[in-house]
């Protein structure tokens, strides 16, 4: 079930989103819904990442969570 909402967006972001929706040949609402779903999925993945790091670090690793995060970010940026 879908629900209509009202919100305020930066005009530049809205313009870019509309242009992208036109290029993709789909409604703006679908583009915004997919973007929000991906953003929320990232929050869940971040929680999994932090739990895995804590478990890993609990076995005597000399790396802090910040150091592990930095290493993982380097890997992501290399892609």
By DSSP (H or I, 4+ residues per run), the number of helices equals 3
Q: List how many beta strands DSSP finds.
A: 0
Question: By helix and strand content, what is the structural category?
Answer: mainly alpha
The sequence of SSEs as H and E is HHH
Which geometry do the CA atoms define? Answer: elongated
Largest sheet: none
- The overall average pLDDT, rounded, is 82
Residue stretches low in confidence (pLDDT < 50, at least 5 long) are: none
Radius of gyration: 19 Å
From the N-terminal CA to the C-terminal CA, the straight-line distance is 37 Å
| Helix amount | over 70%
Strand content: under 5%
- Structural domain count: 1
Please provide a written account of the structure.
This protein is mainly α and 79 residues long. Helices cover 73% and strands 0% of the residues. It has one domain. It has three helices and no strands.
């Amino acid at each position: 079930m879908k629900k209509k909402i009202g919100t305020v967006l930066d005009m530049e972001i809205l313009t870019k989103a509309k242009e992208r929706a036109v290029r993709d040949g789909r409604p703006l609402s679908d583009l915004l819904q997919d973007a929000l779903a991906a953003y929320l999925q990232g929050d869940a993945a971040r929680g999994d990442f932090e739990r895995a790091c804590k478990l890993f670090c609990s076995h005597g690793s000399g790396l802090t969570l910040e150091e592990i995060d930095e290493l993982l970010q380097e890997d992501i940026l290399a892609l």
